[in-house]
Amino acid sequence: MEPVDLQALHVQQEPNVESIAAWATSMFVVELPEHEVLKEDLLAHAYQVRASADCAIASQVAVSAKNNLFESRLNFLESDAQGVSELRSILEELVSAVAEQVNSGCLEEGQGLDATIVESWCHITENGGYHDAHSHPNCSWCGIYYLDAGDCELNSRSGVNRFYDPRNCANQYHDAGTQYLDATGVWDFVPKSGQVVVFPSYLTHSALPYFGEKDRVVIAFNCRVSQSKR
């Protein structure tokens, strides 16, 4: 029998550690090529809706969570005003593509997904306006179209949309091993005119206080998705 090399037995091998990124949240941002063509008609419609409203929060949803902004009723994209139906079609096609991408592993050959906007509204936010943290029930995907980002700015967080970590109880205990959670607990998105951000409805978000001379004008929408044949 050959002698056993005891020293070799005690040599520790480096473990092969594999990183697994589980339960990621998919979000999407796109710049609408049609923005320059549509914006003036849509802005005119938004201000006309505000002028005809009898209160600041016409939707009557979460009135106390909003300050110094106008919110229309939840049928903004159902109007026959110039540019509205075109924008609705563009947004529904966008969310349909998003839903098909994230659900690609669940779809059978020849199967597609169609998104339908079930609620839509505009916000016209003035200096000092904000919208507290919230999420959108009774839909699967949501979006915000920045019709006029006004004077939004990242360094001061003026008018940015803040999205919050969806992992329940992620912050229940803090020590040196959870510092990465503090660094990733929120994600601030700086509005840019012409952009649309699309996100799952469970994602809590807010519009931080906006400070600017111009109005911050957005169109928000909620979608439900159904299966279809391609």
Automatic annotation (TrEMBL):
Protein name in the entry: 2OG-Fe(II) oxygenase family protein
Taxonomic lineage of the native organism: Bacteria, Pseudomonadati, Pseudomonadota, Gammaproteobacteria, Alteromonadales
Organism of this sequence: Alkalimarinus alittae
Family annotation (Pfam families): 2OG-FeII_Oxy_5
